[in-house]
Specification:
This protein has 13 helices and 18 strands. Helix 3 runs antiparallel to helix 10. It starts with 7 loop residues before the first strand and ends with a helix.
Length: 432
């Protein structure tokens, strides 16, 4: 029998790995909205997780100066030491992560790529043993979660174990839930605070309690690494200060902190991410990432290193980052006020990042003005795009209770938020 899981074209086939891979719904919706827009439709997009601000001028100037100074050649795979040292210093001074040097830091082509490389260095596909195939390594993933964590684990041959959260828990797992899930095959625990898609955060007390569980189950899961994605660390405004779990001494040597320049510094298109892990294993792990990266992308764009150092050390830039954070805080208040007026929609207050994740299941079972059946977040998103020309991201791909939610990015102007909410409210008022 031929293998029908492969995608066939004229007798040729694609790998199972890629044929079974789910495309990112965020990217798909964004593309569809862009296509409608290009055809002349006035679409209001709330799908992209991208600040609408320009990259601060000193950062741009640093890259321009580096180009003019001839920094246009190959660089060391994981970045030049001055830049790796600058990131180590930032993580030590700002995040309280002790024991970091430049050798504990990897710089790669965006946070998403760095995550991918990290998981490739941590998870193996199951090997065949004398008693059949071993169990796969597991990624413990609190859901709803950003859409790329699960596929990245599956590509490496791992199994995703979802840890369910709810609006009632502020989309946070509790320590006992984690304790129950940990077993000898647990390899990675993913934490993302502030969260994409939920906009909620773990407090310092929450993270210390999680760290305690990881520490106390060391004998059960000796290989467990905490992967903390802190890409939104500077976009916090809900009264919960950002805290890095990598600063907790008991688990510092098994915590991989992933971050990047995209969100805090409005540098999404620059594609700069980094990972850091202290200790002996940390240094070996980062070296392994370098070996892998040396076969894939090698170094990031060479003149971006100067821009990274500028972003992390320039006081004027720090002021601009604060200004952007204040703008997101005021937009969060605006969109929450508008959502509160729409019947059948309820939303947990965001504390960081630039997303709200409203529960829209109160609208299921109705029909749109053009007769589309609203029986899921996906159906609601499609009808909203087709009939009201508003692009929100349906929550299905975020896992867990996400299927009852929409993700709305408010990384856009007040005018656009108000116009989008007007259309959303108008659409909902015509459902029957």
């Amino acid at each position: 029998m031929p293998d029908t899981t492969h995608a066939h074209t004229h007798g040729m086939s694609l790998s199972r790995r890629v044929s079974s891979l789910k495309p990112s719904i965020t990217v798909a919706l964004n593309n569809r909205a862009k296509a409608l827009k290009a055809s002349g439709v006035d679409v209001l997009g709330f799908a992209a997780g991208e600040p609408d601000f320009d990259t601060p001028q000193p950062i741009k100037q640093a890259a321009i100066d580096a180009i003019n100074a001839g920094q246009t050649k190959y660089m060391p795979t994981l970045g030049d030491m001055p830049t790796r040292d600058a990131i180590a210093r930032k993580l030590t001074e700002e995040n309280g992560i002790a024991g970091l040097t430049g050798n504990h830091v990897a710089i790669g082509t965006g946070g998403k790529y760095v995550l991918y490389a990290a998981i490739q260095c941590l998870i193996d596909p199951p090997a065949a043993g004398p008693d059949g195939e071993e169990d796969p390594w597991e990624m413990l993933l609190p859901v709803p979660a950003w859409v790329s964590y699960a596929p990245v684990c599956q590509l490496a041959g791992g199994r995703v174990v979802e840890l369910d959260t709810s609006p009632e828990s502020g989309f946070r797992i509790d320590p006992e839930q984690l304790r129950k899930a940990i077993n000898p095959r647990s390899r990675v625990l993913v934490l993302n605070s502030p969260s994409n898609p939920c906009g909620t955060m773990y407090s310092e007390a929450d993270l210390r309690a999680i760290a305690r569980v990881v520490h106390e189950t060391r004998d059960i899961a000796p290989d467990l690494v905490v992967l903390t994605d802190e890409i939104y660390e500077k976009i916090v405004y809900g009264g919960v200060p950002h805290f890095s779990i990598g600063s907790v001494p008991e688990i510092a040597d098994r915590t991989l902190t992933i971050n990047g320049m995209s969100k805090a510094f409005a540098m999404t298109g620059w594609r700069i991410g980094y990972a850091a892990m202290p200790g002996e294993f940390g240094a070996a792990f980062i070296k392994a990432m370098g070996t892998l990266q040396g076969q894939i992308t090698t170094n990031i764009t060479s003149f971006n290193y100067a821009a990274i150092r500028e972003a992390l050390t320039n006081q004027e830039v720090a002021g601009t980052v604060g200004m952007m954070r204040d703008a997101f805080a005021s937009r969060a208040r605006l969109i929450m006020g508008r959502l509160a007026e729409i019947p059948g929609v309820s939303c947990v207050e965001p504390q960081g990042a630039f997303y709200v994740f409203p529960d829209v299941s109160g609208l299921f079972g109705k029909a749109s003005p053009k007769g589309a059946k609203i029986d899921s977040a996906l159906a609601l998103s499609e009808a909203l795009l087709d009939e009201a020309h508003v692009a929100f991201v349906p929550g299905e791909d975020f896992g867990g209770c996400g299927k009852n939610h929409l993700r709305i990015s408010f990384a856009c102007s007040d005018d656009q938020i108000n116009a989008g909410m007007d259309r959303f409210a108008g659409f909902v008022s015509k459902l029957n």
